[in-house]
Amino acid sequence: MPTTPTLRTRLQEAACDYAHLADWQIVPGSVWTGTEYTRGHTNRIAGEFEPVFPRPTRDVRRLHSLWKIAPYSVLGVAGQAFDVISAPLVLGVAATRTAPFRRSIAPASLSPDRIRFLVRPGIPLATDLLGAELCTAGECVPLPPSPVRGGALTWWISPLATDWLAGDPLAIQAALREAAADLRQPCSR
Question: Is the overall model pTM greater than 0.90, yes or no?
């Protein structure tokens, strides 16, 4: 899946916006070719969300330049401005319809198989949330509009809706717990 000029521009603009408006650490990441992830400019096989440069930055000028060289995917670094709670798509979307989530929304991105909630860092993930994962402490996470296996990331809940602030991790965990209980209930006729 080659990066088109339009997608290249959208990735570059998103990376610069995340650094400028949200003060997030950003780095270009591996590219989805349609069959595998590579480092892009070297065609070396890469991990799913692997940085192609060693140092993330908040410097908008540097990011603008980096995306001229490596317009592949936008990776944010978890652990400072946000952590990420990732959940299977059906569970995560159901969680966004619960009272705990509506009381304390969080930015959330969608991929074809998962939803990723950006939450304030530092709170561990409860062990009873099966299928949920926590990304923290320097891990790189993909941000929209990065191409991923099966499609591209998009915002379900834009960070603009939360004034670029990460959500409450305990509220997101409560929303996932409530959604899991609701999904286990048999449908009534």
Answer: yes
